[in-house]
Amino acid sequence: MARIAVGGVHHETNCFVAGRTDYAYFATHRDRPPLVRDGDVFEWLDNANFGLSGFMERMAKKHELVPTLWTSGGAGALVSRDAFERIAGELVGTLSRNLPVDAVYLDLHGAGCTEDYEDMEGELLRRVRAAVGPKIPVIISLDYHSNVTPQMVELTDGLIAYHTYPHVDRHQTGERAAEAVERILRDGAPGGRALRKIPFLIPLTGQCTMVEPSRGIVERTKQGVGGEVLTFSYLAGFPPSDLYWCGPTVICHAYSQDAAERAVTELAREIALQEPNFAVPEFTPDAGVRKAMAIAAKASRPVTISDSQDNPGAGGTADTTGLLEVLVRNGAEKAVLGMMWDPEAAASAHAAGEGAKMRLALGGKHGPEGVVPFEAEFTVSKVGSGKFTSTGPAVGGRKMDLGPMALFSVGGVSIAVTSKRGQAHDQEMFRHLGIEPSEQKILALKSSVHFRADFQPISEEVLVVLAPGGHISDATRYPYRRLRRGVRLAPLGPEHRPEAGVGDYP
Fold this sequence. Notes:
Shape: globular
Strand order of the largest sheet: 12-13-16-17-11-18-10-19
Radius of gyration: 22 Å
Structural class: alpha/beta
Number of strands: 19
Helix content: 25-40%
């Protein structure tokens, strides 16, 4: 029986939205557990869909698991100095007090940036490695959107990425991490490691693994594990994170350097040949809504619209109003939009009660520049506690607490409003407010791709609409300060050519 330290820190940082992600946000129970430590790690993550959940299920009966802490700040602005130092300090401090251990497993995200460190995970791993020394195996699992850096690779002995986007295999990723740890405990740590950065950025809407080319690329990594290869992963990157190594990566840990180099070189070459195939059609709000209405008029299933640029899972505020305004102005019927973040509006609805009519300035309170509230007379159709258990493939079984919720209606459009930010990736969010998604004509969802796991099967068609929001789909519009020069900002897109001194290796 081995003694294995476990923990996790998640944040997907959009460096181009205002504000900071503070410690309190990490500590809050929202659409994911709050910051938990020691034995509470086991209680909150048991039988859930996180990497550590799968790892625990596979290893708890075989080995002694030593919990440190686990927390997820979701996606949003730069992680504050205070938040990172408190979280990293507690994780490493708890680890140090519980030494010796035979291995360390960390459930990480891989796209974190802080006020001080553009590579948040690399800095955390540096501190973990300093605590346990060079010989103790350190294995990590990463989100599919990780911006992998050389430091992350050098400081680990195995790196396992999600295979899916929408992320329906978080739990299985933890199980695969457990398999890697068991092999290391049996055969020793691998000596070979190799990394290839793909020379172009991929927008989130082009990263979905339900379709080609991403589906086939991930399948190649699955087939490549075994023999000399311990772990072999493709990670599509997160463009709104401004760091030198932003972008897609192929990474391999193997028992020989030749095997690692061969694996990443071959797959990187295949991805290069697929570059033209990552594009996804995108619509302006008016064009997208009118197309959705035309399809819905003849369809028996809803048309789903992705309000991709206000995706809170990519740092959007979840309160922009561009798509809402277009739906109302075009006279959409049996349309529902969610999830709109507006705690003040939700509180007003609870105070007024169901059936009340009120004039509100809904949403539009948190930017970006040019976004304004949507003013109208609304009817309060339904209120809810915001506490429920999700049921869909991406977050099934997760205990949600989105704070007081309300369903407002204006004309033929309903708006699901929350008190805490949450991505619309599960039908149960709407059922909590009395809306059966399959019975609607149009579903307008603040999500880029995760919604597809639960909503695409009930949809006549899915349309991606680019209304204003904090997550810009077109990376050429981001004012990068750290991204390496020469990387293409989109598949077959222009190269990043910053001013002198910008985009040089830090």
